[in-house]
UniProtKB/TrEMBL annotation:
This is Nucleoside diphosphate kinase. Residues 3-137 form the Nucleoside diphosphate kinase-like domain. GO terms for biological process: CTP biosynthetic process; GTP biosynthetic process; UTP biosynthetic process. It is found in: Cytoplasm. The lineage of its organism: Bacteria, Pseudomonadati, Bacteroidota, Flavobacteriia, Flavobacteriales. One of its GO terms (molecular function) is nucleoside diphosphate kinase activity. It comes from Flavobacterium beibuense.
C-alpha cells in the first residue's frame, strides 16, 4: 500500500496567491486520488522537524521561515507509482528548470518558493504522511 502513496504540501507562496484549486485540479486530473487533505500551518518546531534532513544546509533558516509564514495544504495522494509520478508532475526543484506542463513551471517563482512539496521516497512518504495525519484521517 505504501508504495502507491505519496505526501504533498501546497506551500505558503501558492496558498497566498490563491492557487489551491488550480494545483488540486492538476493533481486529480493526473490521476491521483486524495487520501487525506487539510489546510494547516506549520509551527517552527514542525518545520524544523519536517526538514531536519536539511538542517546543515545554508538555506535551512530561510526554508523554515518560509514554510511557517502562512497556511499550507497537506495531502496524501494515491496512484500506482505515486512517488515517482508525482515528482514528474511537480517538476524540478528550481522552477527555471521545470518542464512545461508541470506544477512548478506554472505556479513556482524560485527555488525556495516553489509552490509544492513531493516526497522523495516511499519511506519518506510514509513518515511525512504520518507526521501530518492520524490513521483515522487517511482514507
Ligand atoms: P522541497 O524539495 O519540497 O524540500 C526541500 C526544500 O528546500 C525545497 O523544496 C526548496 O523549497 C528548498 N530549497 C532547496 N534548495 C534551496 C536553495 N538553494 N535555497 C532556498 N531553498 C532551497
Amino acid at each position: 500500500m505504501a508504495t502507491n502513496r505519496t505526501f504533498t504540501m501546497i506551500k505558503p507562496d501558492a496558498v497566498e496567491k490563491g492557487h489551491i484549486g488550480g494545483i488540486l485540479s492538476m493533481i486529480t486530473e493526473a490521476g491521483f486520488r486524495i487520501v487525506s487533505l487539510k489546510l494547516t500551518q506549520l509551527t517552527l518546531a514542525d518545520a524544523q522537524a519536517f526538514y531536519a534532513v536539511h538542517k546543515e544546509r545554508p538555506f535551512f533558516g530561510e526554508l523554515v521561515e518560509f514554510m511557517t509564514r502562512g497556511p499550507i495544504v497537506a495531502a496524501i495522494l494515491e496512484k500506482e507509482n505515486a512517488v515517482e509520478d508525482f515528482r514528474a508532475l511537480i517538476g524540478a526543484t528550481n522552477p527555471a528548470d521545470a518542464a512545461e506542463g508541470t506544477i512548478r513551471k506554472k505556479y513556482a517563482t524560485s527555488v525556495g518558493e516553489n509552490a509544492v512539496h513531493g516526497s522523495d521516497s516511499d519511506e519518506n512518504a510514509a513518515i511525512e504522511s504520518n507526521f501530518h495525519f492520524a490513521g483515522r484521517e487517511q482514507f
